[in-house]
Amino acid sequence: MTHGEKNEAPMREVYLDYAAATPVDPEVAEAMLPYLTERFWNPSAPYARAREVRDDVERARGTVARLIGARPDCLTFTAGATEANNLAFAAVEGHVVVDAIEHESVLACAGTHARRTVRVGADGIVDAAAVARAIRPDTELVSVELANGEIGCVQPVREISRVVATERARRLEAGEDTPIYLHSDASQAAGALSVNVATLGVDLLTLSAAKIYGPKQVGVLWASEDVRLRPLVYGGGQEGGVRSGTENVAGVVGFARALELACERRGEEGRRLAGLRERLREGLLARVPSMVVTGPKSPKRRLPGLLHVSFAGVEARRLVIALERAGVSVGTGSACAASRMRVSHVLEAIGMPRELAEGSLRLTLGRGTTEEDVDYAVEAIADAVRAEMARVGTDAAAMAALAGGWGRR
Amino acid sequence: MTHGEKNEAPMREVYLDYAAATPVDPEVAEAMLPYLTERFWNPSAPYARAREVRDDVERARGTVARLIGARPDCLTFTAGATEANNLAFAAVEGHVVVDAIEHESVLACAGTHARRTVRVGADGIVDAAAVARAIRPDTELVSVELANGEIGCVQPVREISRVVATERARRLEAGEDTPIYLHSDASQAAGALSVNVATLGVDLLTLSAAKIYGPKQVGVLWASEDVRLRPLVYGGGQEGGVRSGTENVAGVVGFARALELACERRGEEGRRLAGLRERLREGLLARVPSMVVTGPKSPKRRLPGLLHVSFAGVEARRLVIALERAGVSVGTGSACAASRMRVSHVLEAIGMPRELAEGSLRLTLGRGTTEEDVDYAVEAIADAVRAEMARVGTDAAAMAALAGGWGRR
After folding, report:
1. A113, A150, A233, A364: which to substitute to probe chain B, counting the most B Cβ within 10 Å?
2. Cβ separation of B46 and A247 shorter than 8 Å?
3. Which is deepest, A114, A115, A256, A392, by most CB within 10 Å?
4. Domains of chain B: total
5. CATH number at residue A197
6. Per-residue pLDDT for B404 more than 90?
7. DSSP bridge pairs for B207
């Protein structure tokens, strides 16, 4: 079976990069469209039709709030997760604690503060005890994502919230008045995991519509009533003065619908994706036994639809090109970093040898993925890897040596 | 003729608030839709389909650049004009000069700098000589909008650019190395006036899609190659590192199409709107001779589709409600301020007496406005004003007294 010989249309189009972008769900698009066309009014305008649109924005806010177990007035809609993360960090001036595999926007924000960066193990999991050790008396913010978008590990945010609560109690006891907050970027998690803020025990939470079959450039930051947000942009005073600019009505309405659908489908879809992921993993391992799978072993600690695989000594960028000829779209890491084709900071942080990191693919499944897609992708990926192995003249033993024992942990 | 008695559907729906929000043009919506659904890929992802989307973003950037006579790499797409204005002001640290009737976002940004606020006359026009006097040796930014969205005056930006150039030449001569830039928010102007950056002589220009029949929360900041922009948000490094976050592909593509249409239709549509505006003005004056019209007399100095009218002693908010019963949607000023129902800073700045300012309506016409709409609105507005005059027991003479001679300038 050959896949996509040159000048030949691929037999199938298989998209395996849902962590980079999701299509807008048709129900979400349907909810959005009226606000582009007939319901286009400015929500701040004074007449009834505009007030109705304002009500629709507030209803969407209420929906999102209900789905995360929060008060509507504690939500700030933003132009995506990056802005929401920036807004969270702008709420504090003092020391911050982050882990080493956070999204680039969180690391960049942390870079504008005094900070401690907590290391992670080979599975990417942040150790709550390490967070506890990193917290100083002047630490004001701890930021740990709910799930990592590259290797799929789900962080023990609840456990870390207990660490933060303990420090808060200590400060109260000691009469210290420096606040400490826990922020979590749940952009990559919201499609698969509960994002109830009380259950998570967070003070700030970032969500993104673009990762849950909603529109791009729509996000939200939830902040508990204890947190005083500081604006990044100034103007007309929308979003409680925290985020000025005429509201993205269609985007906000679409976001609410997308989160509703994500919450409704989470359980069933999670099980389906976990099954497909196993099918993909087993299919690939059967064909390329030297393949290394990264991420937590426990299914409870990983995103159901994400499989991170590495082929030592094989260049991922060449695999991407071979696979696109076969109609299979795969990622090599977070899209932002991928475009610059450098080794991902996540793989560096978990200590993966460079020769393995450079041969890594992030395969993410989503609502459109079928068993047939997975089976087709298994063959296409295995073919591409074997062809590359033959081209560079490597074999399983050489690959194992390059992997430096990584796959045997 | 009665308009919209209670519990009776209005005979016609007439929208006269195009300066607050425009519907998305069907052609723009058509251009956007594929990027929500089938072409949803992340422009930073490494495979061909995603690179095509990235090319589409760059093509849109090229289109916008061409239409404003600029280099594509000098454009930064933002989530609207407010963010673009904030980005412009973040480029400088020193003293700034603004005029008193700028959009709230510009005034708020100026508030974070040492500043001089130039007064304007009763017609709202900024005097270039006054700008020259306001510039200090440490002034780094002058910001004057191209057209005001409330009273419709078109500012002499070209003339002000000569003032800035003169100061720049003086500094060069004197061996001073403080830069000075001219920024113009052209959000309200782009539908009606040329926004060629070279002709205007600006260094920074803000545009908004939401005012030219494009989507909300999509804007652009153009900055000449001399200006070094500083990011407001940090992250994946999109938009040349200046504005991180996965691109709003649909929004950017829609923006480019909207600006194309605006430029194509500008001349003809401007003449049509100017004619309708005169019809509206004359119709209203014939029925309510005590009505005061604000804004420059010269058609060259005002937006063609905007008519600002005031009725002394009559509460605009009551007119808005009466008019919405008649199916006519009108604004009372900038939508942001309107929602807080306070007297607009623009009317305060031009020295309009409070009794007149509180009875002000901003009527803005757009692509959907017909002669029939205007004739219907004339009757509805005149009816509403006369009913309010009767209710509060005022007459033309009393109104003239309250206006304090404003209308007779």
Report:
1. A233
2. no
3. A256
4. 2
5. 3.40.640.10
6. no
7. B220
